[in-house]
């Protein structure tokens, strides 16, 4: 996500998690960006917010959900719901990925993509908005469950590899 810092330099923050919480991470980045747009970035350091997400948000055990209230000096307040599914159960998929998948592609195209995934063909997704790629890819991985993609999974292909 892009965060404007008020001065001429730009700051970028990327949140990476093993947990299937893309929507939560996106909300956090939007909240941090809104803090910077309110000119609070010079006053409030961004690192404690990111550190809080990485170090202080506990992960629930398998097959459990938990709700956490996260607050930072009355500037940032959110309820966070984090869940992990049982092993060999349907993977957790956020609604946004499935909605993107079926609003961007017709059902016939989705079936065609799934056929190629199951046949272990190479799949390349292209999006004008890079933020749509990970939710789309995760939705496709969830749809082919219980099968698992055995090839290399690159959510973002570096520009140097475009051919």
Automatic annotation (TrEMBL):
Record lineage: Eukaryota, Sar, Stramenopiles, Bigyra, Labyrinthulomycetes
A Gene Ontology molecular function term of the record: small GTPase binding
Transmembrane segments: none
Occurrences of domain UDENN (ranges): 1-163
Taxonomic superkingdom: Eukaryota
Protein name: UDENN domain-containing protein
InterPro entries: cDENN_dom, DEN5A/B, DENN_C, Tripartite_DENN
